[in-house]
Structure formats: C-alpha cells, structure tokens
C-alpha cells in the first residue's frame, strides 16, 4: 500500500474507516456490484454531502482531481487490485478502533448516500462526478491533474444539490 502524500486534517476520519462505513452501509442496504469504481465514488459523494450538511469533512484528507475522476488516494490503492470484482464487505474492518468515538454524523450521512446512490453502478456515479461544473472539473481546469479538491468547493456544490 502506498502512503499518501496528501496532508491530513485534524477534522474528519481516516479514509479507510470511512470506507469501512460505506461498505457496512452497502451490505446493510443489500447493494449489489460494489466494485472499486462504485466504492470510490460513494465515499467521495458521502464526503461532499457531509461537508454540505455538517459543515465539516467526512475525510481527514482531500479528494484529488485525477485524470479519470475524483479519487481518495489511499482508498484507491486499498481496492484497485479488485479490478472489476466486488469488494468484500469486511475488507476495511480492521480500521475500526477498539474504542470507537461517536461517529454518528458520518454513519448517518453515509447511510443516506447509500439509500440515494447505492443502486447506481460505478459508471453512472462516475459520469455524475465528471460533469462540467462539478468540483472535479473545476479543480482540473484551475489547477491541473491530481490537484486536491477544495472542501469549500465540494461543500458549496453539494449544498446546491440539497436545495
């Protein structure tokens, strides 16, 4: 696994723990076909909605504007070897701390995102996050490939979706 070169924030949670919560919510909702592309987009979308609803990040690292879409670097490297295969539900369970703090805001937003987006496949979610005017496209246009996507940009975009 590759160590992230992105600066961690004191707000939000480790992306692996967030990924675990997404997989757990997908399992509870009986989501189908949770492959790397779908998984990565669901985490990214949950991060955006958490910013919009709670005015704080889900993740303690920024998403990045890679060539083929928004990516959370550490999670990409954790799941890329699955390729087109489904990710096992318990893959990231080892990231849950023994004394888990109250992460209810994270879990609530993730559960709502899974209800709203869990039925879609990775290609549909990818197309939605790649449209002109999305935080990914704005970041790539302004700063080029692999730039961090500003949380304020994400928050404002997802607030508009909630309106």
Describe, in plain words, how this protein is organized in 3D.
It is a single chain. With 163 residues, the chain is mainly alpha-helical. It has one domain (15-162). It is built from seven helices and three strands; from the N terminus they run ααββααααβα. It has helices at 15-28, 36-54, 73-79, 104-117, 122-129, 135-143, 151-162, and strands spanning 64-66, 69-71, 147-148. Strands 2-1-3 form a three-stranded antiparallel sheet. Helix 1 crosses helix 4. The longest helix has 19 residues, at 36-54. The chain is globular and about 40 Å long. The N and C termini lie far apart (39 Å).
Percent of residues in beta strands: under 5%
If strands are numbered along the chain, what order do they take across the biggest sheet? Answer: 2-1-3
Instruction: Compute the number of strand runs.
Output: 3
Which residues form runs of ≥5 with pLDDT under 50? 1-7
Mean model confidence by pLDDT: 92
Rg over C-alpha atoms, rounded to the nearest angstrom: 14 Å
Order of helices and strands: HHEEHHHHEH
Name the helicity range: 40-55%
Largest sheet: 3 strands, antiparallel
What's the number of structural domains?
1
Structural class: mainly alpha
Coarse morphology: globular
